[in-house]
Amino acid sequence: MAMAMSDSGASRLRRQLESGGFEARLYVKQLSQQSDGDRDLQEHRQRIQALAEETAQNLKRNVYQNYRQFIETAREISYLESEMYQLSHLLTEQKSSLESIPLTLLPAAAAAGAAAASGGEEGVGGAGGRDHLRGQAGFFSTPGGASRDASGPGEEGKQRTLTTLLEKVEGCRHLLETPGQYLVYNGDLVEYDADHMAQLQRVHGFLMNDCLLVATWLPQRRGMYRYNALYSLDGLAVVNVKDNPPMKDMFKLLMFPESRIFQAENAKIKREWLEVLEETKRALSEKRRREQEEAAAPRGPPQVTSKATNPFEDDEEEEPAVPEVEEENVDLSMEWIQELPEDLDVCIAQRDFEGAVDLLDKLNHYLEDKPSPPPVKELRAKVEERVRQLTEVLVFELSPDRSLRGGPRATRRAVSQLIRLGQCTKACELFLRNRAAAVHTAIRQLRIEGATLLYIHKLCHVFFTSLLETAREFEIDFAGTDSGCYSAFVVWARSAMGMFVDAFSKQVFDSKESLSTAAECVKVAKEHCQQLGDIGLDLTFIIHALLVKDIQGALHSYKEIIIEATKHRNSEEMWRRMNLMTPEALGKLKEEMKSCGVSNFEQYTGDDCWVNLSYTVVAFTKQTMGFLEEALKLYFPELHMVLLESLVEIILVAVQHVDYSLRCEQDPEKKAFIRQNASFLYETVLPVVEKRFEEGVGKPAKQLQDLRNASRLIRVNPESTTSVV
Question: Which stretches make up the PH domain (predicted)?
């Protein structure tokens, strides 16, 4: 009975809360008036909480059910889209086939096209239709031009297929102007960052018979792409990337000086991409070679061709064809040529790279001036496949994934063989990338010691030693090659210097070290950088350009510290002589002032341990000269105005304070003492600052001269109220 009443109460409460005119404030007010006490309110609260939990569970159940239905619907939409695309593709091919048939055969062709279209619709409806394109990643044509599709069109059909697909790509209409261009393969890929292996974007690749087009997805326009890049197959290298879960089914495209990494949908599609890219490159190179041979071959008179093909001419007139038969005769029966492909496989397996390249050089030398009949072409095709395998192994030897121990000399073997294979640009790129990874690893493995200067010594030794060894090895490996490689090395050295400066600045400037420590660290870096001049490499200007902002910040920060300290001392100034209490303290002060360049400090010392100067002026002198000495260690021409303006600002703080005190003080004795301190500043300190600045910079500073000359106002007319500023 109680349970039935409870269920009815819960249902009544649910209906009340779900009603359209429900108002929470009115409901709570009525509930408070009707309740007998706190217990009734607690029970009602528990009922509402139970109802809320039940509602939440029902909501979760409904969301999960709807989510499953949404996933199933999306999957069906994807299948339908694939089938519709296939159907559109088949209809386009049928249309192109019908248009190529002469008008006299149009009725028969129309009947055949209708039958083929109905058969294609049956294929689209099944799973085989979806497998035919694999999400637009199937073959449309082989590199040789023979279609891998059952209904492959001719040259005109290939052009229409390319036009139809590239209409979905924005910004690539100019590609269609190339005659004889057709689509070989296309498919979806995912691009990853080459350095950090982070996913970048979804792309779609279109492989033509002479180039590769990469297009990015347009999320807001389904099925449409935007042009991203176009790479000629002549300068494109394909490298298989070893699976390293979860990074798998990837391959790399090398286009000097950049590289891109793509991930296929699965291992099968990755293998197809690698095979088709190599086949297309090989077909393109073969086509170019044939065109060159045809262009270089002398053309005979037209009548010779007619006589050679006329069976009714005499045998004597067929003699012009005899040299052509002799030209095709190339002796390939030698044992070393017959066993050459197998010997190359053995050399690659045994990592005898030098032996493999020696065999290739021997073959190229033998076939250098000989024609290319079919047997020679077949041999070259076999050898080119081995060359591709050898190149992949050498590229892997230079990849940063390999062990970086052994220094730059460890790369010499692979680099030299790549250069012998005629791939100097690739060898240069891979060598510099390997060394960049080695330098980055060496810097990252350095332990950050407690003493900053000790860490900077280690950092400079590791970096500049690696840079020096890399430069010497580069000069050995690439001597006599294209000068463009040396330009690439200079660009790499600048990039490596940026890596060094990042680590340097993080430890020296970001940690707010003192100016003296920063100056010593910069001095150490400059000394190591100058060692590169032994090999003709001057990177001093680069390290200056990269450090100028950090040094400016350090000078500005330390200037502000000196100004604040000087203002604080000025606020407590009593204009009294200094009493150092002991002769040792006085002697120490004399040595400090002498090291600051004040050679006549003796005339300002009095009897016993007294100094006839204010503590504020003496402290200002030591601090200013210390700032100048440390700043000159950091100096280079780009910092000239920054240092000069900082000095002027610091000196003006003291000058303005003395000027103000001299004008405001009424006591004659104190006024005379202030005038003595002013004389020390203007006649001793300012000339010393000016002289030391000129010695460190190499030229005088007009601003400091003007500041010293302006101080004559005070000495000529001490009672004047005119300010020095």
Answer: 182-282
Report the range of poorest mean pLDDT among 157-166, 276-285, 477-486.
Answer: 157-166
Considering the domain boundaries, does residue 618 fall inside one? yes
Number of alpha carbons in the 13 Å side-chain half-sphere of residue 308? 13
Q: Which pLDDT belongs to residue 112?
A: 42
For residue 154, is it within any domain? no
Domain count for the chain: 4
Helices (H), ranges, 101-192: 106-125, 127-133, 155-166
Q: Are residues 487 and 619 in the same domain?
A: no
**Is residue 583 scored above 90 in pLDDT?**
no
For 592-607, the DSSP string reads HHHHTT-TTGGGGB-S
- Quick one: 289 and 351 in the same domain? no
Residues 59 and 182 in one domain: no
Long-range contacts of the stretch 273-279 (C-beta < 8 A, 24+): 273/185, 273/187, 273/205, 274/238, 274/240, 276/139, 276/143, 276/184, 276/185, 276/207, 277/207, 277/212, 277/233, 277/236, 277/238, 278/238, 278/388, 279/142, 279/143
**Using the 8-state DSSP alphabet, how is residue 242 labeled?**
P
Tell me how far apart the alpha carbons of residues 234 and 211 are, in angstroms, rounded to a whole number. Answer: 8
Contacts of 204 (CB under 8 A, 6+ apart): 136, 186, 187, 188, 189, 214, 215, 216, 217, 225
pLDDT above 50: residue 290: yes
Co-location of 343 and 406 in the same domain: yes
Q: Decide if 312 is inside a domain.
A: no
My answer on whether 560 and 676 are in the same domain is yes
Length, in residues, of the chain: 725
At 262, the pLDDT band (50, 70, 90 cuts) reads very high
What is the per-residue pLDDT for 711? 60
Longest CA pairwise span in the chain (Å): 137
Look up the domain containing 72 and give its range: 29-81
Give me the CATH number covering residue 203: 2.30.29.30
* 478 and 366 in a common domain: yes
Instruction: Decide if 524 contacts 568 (C-beta within 8 A).
Output: no
Q: Which residues of 15-28 are buried (b: 16+ CB within 10 A; e: fewer)?
A: eeeeeeeeeeeeee
- Banded pLDDT at 332 (limits 50, 70, 90): confident
* Between 22 and 122, residue with greater pLDDT: 22
> Is it the case that residue 311 has pLDDT exceeding 50?
no
In whole numbers, what is the pLDDT of the chain averaged over residues? 77
Number of H-type helices and E-type strands within the chain: 26, 10
Range of lowest pLDDT (78-82, 120-124, 343-347): 120-124
First to last CA, the chain: 99
pTM surpassing 0.70? Answer: no
The CATH number that applies at residue 576 is: 1.10.357
Is residue 264 predicted with pLDDT exceeding 80?
yes
pLDDT the model gives residue 205: 92
Interacting residues of 31 by C-beta distance below 8 A, sequence separation 6+ = 41, 44
Same domain for 597 and 463: no
**Of the residues 81, 97, 118, which one is the last residue of a structural domain?**
81
In the DSSP assignment, the letter for residue 244 is: B
Q: Is the pLDDT of residue 7 over 70?
A: no
Lookup: tokens for 430? 């891979």
**What percentage of the chain exceeds 70 in pLDDT?**
79
700 and 631, same domain (yes or no): yes
Q: Which residues contact 141 (CB under 8 A, 6 or more apart)?
A: 147, 148, 149, 152, 158, 161, 182, 183, 184, 209
d(CA 430, CA 400): 9
| Band (273; pLDDT cuts 50, 70, 90) | very high
Q: How far apart are CA 203 and CA 190, in angstroms?
A: 6
In a domain, 106, yes or no: no
User: Which residues pair with residue 240 across a beta bridge?
Assistant: 251
pLDDT (average), residues 263-287: 90
